[in-house]
Automatic annotation (TrEMBL):
Keywords: Acyltransferase, Ribonucleoprotein, Ribosomal protein, Transferase. Residues 11-181 form the N-acetyltransferase domain. CDD domains: NAT_SF. It holds the Pfam family Acetyltransf_1. GO terms for cellular component: ribosome. This is Ribosomal protein S18 acetylase RimI. InterPro entries: Acyl_CoA_acyltransferase, Bact_Acetyltransf, GNAT_dom. It comes from Roseibium denhamense. Transmembrane segments: none annotated.
Length: 181
């Protein structure tokens, strides 16, 4: 039996240390650009240079060092197939709350349950951080908008013309929350 007859191993989801995240910056930049080029509303407008994508992820790595944010990735072989961040509310009165941010799954790895795995992992991480109220936003009409309710999120509302999408058009955003108690 040859290696080609075996199916690929399922993606592995794990928490990155700040050092691991810095090492992953090139792969995270490739993931960001691939998702943006596929139309994802993730805070950037095309074109996005590799240098700018890497600078973005290096800034996120600095947040990991402070302990206010956490990054989880899904690897498929050597590739980063997906990422999600948990950003703890820094306010004294928000010690129960966190934002779920930058959920991305590479277009080549979509429709395989990877986003759900990342969302379940971020729930577990939030619980470990004693955060039970999670908040996120997504582009209204984006495929992710239909994902979040299936992961237990409740729609709080829609803000029209919230941000420019990847191709320069104004998009609405939908706000979701989840109570983990």
């Amino acid at each position: 039996m040859t290696a080609e007859t075996f199916p690929p191993a399922p993606p592995v989801v794990y928490l990155l240390s700040d050092r691991q995240a810095y090492s992953a910056v090139p792969g995270l930049a490739r993931l960001l650009i691939a998702c943006l080029e596929d139309g994802a509303g993730i805070g950037f407008v095309l074109p996005l240079s590799v240098e700018d994508a890497e600078a973005f992820w290096r800034a996120k790595c600095e947040e990991l060092t402070s302990g206010q944010s956490f990054m989880m990735v899904a690897r498929q072989g050597a590739d980063i197939a997906g990422v999600v961040m948990l950003c703890l509310a820094p306010q004294q009165n928000g010690s129960h709350r966190a934002d779920v941010a930058k959920l991305m799954v590479h277009p080549d790895h979509r429709r395989k349950g990877l986003a759900r795995k990342l969302m379940a992992a971020v729930d577990d991480l939030a619980r470990a951080q004693t955060r039970w109220l999670l908040v996120l936003d997504t582009v209204t009409g984006d495929s992710a908008e239909s994902l979040y309710p299936t992961c237990g999120y409740q729609k709080a509302g829609i803000i029209p013309d919230y941000a420019y999408g990847s191709h320069g058009q104004l998009d609405a955003t939908t706000i979701f929350y989840k109570d983990l108690r």
